[in-house]
Specification:
alpha+beta; about 300 residues; four-stranded antiparallel β-sheet; five-stranded antiparallel β-sheet; 11 helices
C-alpha cells in the first residue's frame, strides 16, 4: 500500500503549492492503484478541498467520520479538517478529481462581508465537510458544477472565469447547508482530533524505529486505553496494524523508487526481521517483494515502449 506523496509539517499540515501562489486555486486528478498509491495519508490544510469520484470506490475519512465514495459522489472538505482516503478492498484502481482553493480569492480576506457571511459562519459551526451522493438531486448539481469548474480553459481571463464558476459552486453549497441546518452538520470533535494528530505525526516521524504502544503513549501523553480507542475511532484498526500498514506503504515506495535491497528496505522501514517483512508482504500482495519489484519494473518498461512506438 503505497503512500501518496504529501509534503507535511510536524502537525500533519500539508505544505500546499499552487501553479500560481498569487492565485491559490488548483485542480488535480488523484489516482489510486498498486503502482502510484493506494493511500492518501491523514493530513489537513487551511484551504478548502472539493472532490468528485471519477472512477472506482474509496474509503474516505473526515476527522473521525467514515464515508464510502462511489463513482459520481462529491466530497467537500472544509478548512483545517483532518482527512485521508484509501482504495477500497477488492478495488484495483480509483480516480478522484480534486479542486483546492483559498477562500481569500473569493472574499479578499477575513475582514470582508463575504467571508463573514459565507465562510466564518461555517467555521463558527465547526463544520468539517459533507458528502453528496451522486444519485441525489444536490449530488448531481454539485457534480455538474464542479466538473464545469474543472473544465475552465486557461488563457486570458482564466482567473475571472474561475471566480465566476467557483462562486456558483459555493452559493449552491452554502444554500444547501442553510436549508439543512435543522439537521446536524458534520461537526469537528476537538476531544480526539488533537490526540490523533499527535499520534499520526509520531508514527510518520518514527516508523523506521521500534514503536510500541508504550512509546506512543509516552510521546503523546495519552493512556493505553485511549490509544486503542482513538485508533479504533479514526482507522478501525489496532495501533500495530496501522503502524505495519504505514511501514508497508513506505517499503513499497522504496522498492519502486530506489535500488536498495529488500533487506535494507525492511530495515529502513522498521521491520527488523526481513523474514517477517517478507511474510507480511506476501500476505498483502500475494507475491514476494522481489517478484513484486520485478513485475512493476517490467510493467514500467512495457508502458515506456508503448509510448516510444
Amino acid at each position: 500500500m503505497l503512500a501518496k506523496t504529501l509534503h507535511l509539517d510536524s502537525t500533519l499540515k500539508e505544505l500546499m503549492e499552487f501553479p500560481d501562489n498569487a492565485f491559490p486555486f488548483g485542480i488535480w486528478q488523484d489516482h489510486f492503484n498498486e503502482t502510484v498509491g493506494q493511500i492518501l495519508n491523514y493530513h489537513w490544510h487551511e484551504t478548502i478541498e472539493m472532490n468528485v469520484m471519477l472512477k472506482g470506490t474509496l474509503d474516505y475519512r473526515l476527522n473521525d467520520q467514515h464515508f464510502t465514495l462511489n463513482e459520481g459522489d462529491s466530497m467537500i472538505v472544509y478548512s483545517n479538517s483532518l482527512h485521508g482516503a484509501a482504495l477500497r478492498e477488492q478495488e484495483s484502481s480509483a480516480e478522484m478529481l480534486t479542486i483546492v482553493f483559498s477562500p481569500d480569492i473569493l472574499t479578499g480576506g477575513s475582514a470582508g462581508a463575504i467571508y463573514q457571511k459565507y465562510f466564518q459562519t461555517l467555521s463558527d459551526e465547526r463544520f468539517l465537510g459533507k458528502k453528496f451522493e451522486g444519485d441525489s438531486e444536490i449530488g448531481q448539481t454539485m457534480q455538474a458544477a464542479l466538473m464545469d469548474l474543472a473544465s475552465v480553459e486557461t488563457g486570458i481571463g482564466y482567473e475571472l472565469r474561475v471566480l465566476s464558476k467557483l462562486s456558483v459552486v459555493w452559493e449552491k453549497l452554502f444554500l444547501h447547508l442553510v436549508q439543512q441546518q435543522k439537521t446536524s452538520l458534520n461537526k469537528r470533535s476537538d476531544k480526539y482530533e488533537k490526540e490523533i494528530r499527535a499520534v499520526m505525526n509520531y508514527i510518520q516521524q518514527n516508523y523506521m524505529e521500534r514503536i510500541t504502544i508504550q512509546t506512543i503513549c509516552e510521546h503523546t501523553g495519552i493512556s493505553r486505553s485511549e490509544c486503542f480507542r482513538i485508533f479504533a475511532r479514526f482507522t478501525q484498526k489496532k495501533p500495530m496494524e496501522y503502524i505495519n500498514d504505514y511501514r508497508m506503504s513506505m517499503a513499497v515506495a522504496f522498492m519502486l523508487n530506489t535500488n536498495w535491497t529488500v533487506d535494507r528496505i525492511a530495515q529502513e522501514c522498521g521491520f527488523k526481521n526481513p523474514s517477517y517483512f517478507g511474510k507480511l508482504f506476501k500476505e498483502r500482495f500475494n507475491q514476494t517483494p522481489k517478484i513484486y519489484r520485478l513485475n512493476q519494473r517490467k510493467e514500467e518498461q512495457s508502458i515506456g515502449q508503448e509510448f516510444r512506438h
